[in-house]
Specification:
The chain is built from 6 helices and 2 strands. The chain has helices at about 1-35, 35-85, 85-90, 95-145, 165-185, 185-204, and strands at about 150-155, 155-160. The chain has a two-stranded antiparallel ribbon with strand order 1-2. A hairpin with a 2-residue loop joins strand 1 (about 150-155) and strand 2.
Length: about 200
């Protein structure tokens, strides 16, 4: 039932957030491209780095999320069996053994859960830091272009790069990396749901 709940959360919440984030991401990128193609190119260069960070962390965390779901199933199953067979446990003085067995499988759940969330929770800060580096590069390059009165050749025509061009572009850059972060945060939910789905299909 916990695996089914994770799939339900993914279908009802995560997919909606991902679709919304991707649409906003594409829209922001188009506006950035029409504002300043050169600065947009700098952003494009960082996209593989952002994707590499997201896929690497997701690959590592998925292994532990799968183990976490299996350990959670073991804990839940053991609790159900022990409570429903409580009279048998007491008749045979099996309390200490039952406690020791529970501690063992509960420790396994703790270890897998800790590692899974440790990997997953590093994703946001890493993407934010990469986004901050991108922000600084665009500020630096934009400042140089303004100082040189460089032409801004964009889809709306040719003009000069000014502060009124750079400031909105910086806001769009923040929004762009923020959307990538939002989409990548949903990866954890999808990974947990996929791990749960695998267990459900194995059972079926």
């Amino acid at each position: 039932t916990n695996d089914v709940d994770n799939i339900d959360v993914m279908l009802n919440n995560s997919l909606t957030s991902i679709v919304s984030g991707v649409i906003t991401l594409v829209g922001t990128f188009i506006v950035m491209l029409t504002t300043n193609p050169l600065l947009t190119f700098i952003t494009i260069v960082f996209i593989p780095l952002l994707l590499f960070a997201a896929t690497t962390i997701a690959k590592n965390s998925s292994k532990y999320f799968g183990a976490q779901q299996a350990a959670l199933g073991a804990v839940n199953g053991y609790i159900e069996e022990t409570i429903s067979g409580q009279k048998v446990v007491k008749v045979f003085n099996h309390e200490e053994e039952a406690q020791a067995e529970f501690d063992k499988i509960n420790e396994a759940l703790y270890e897998h859960s800790f590692k899974a969330h440790a990997y997953a929770n590093t994703l946001g800060p890493i993407i934010n830091n990469i986004g901050n580096v991108l922000y600084v590069l665009i500020v630096t390059l934009g400042g140089i272009l303004i100082a040189l009165d460089a032409p801004n050749i964009c889809l709306t025509g040719v003009n000069v790069v000014t502060v009124s061009v750079l400031v909105p572009f910086l806001n769009m850059t923040k929004q762009f990396t923020g959307n990538i972060n939002q989409v990548s945060q949903q990866v954890n939910s999808i990974v947990m749901a996929m791990a749960g789905a695998q267990r459900i299909f194995d059972l079926m």
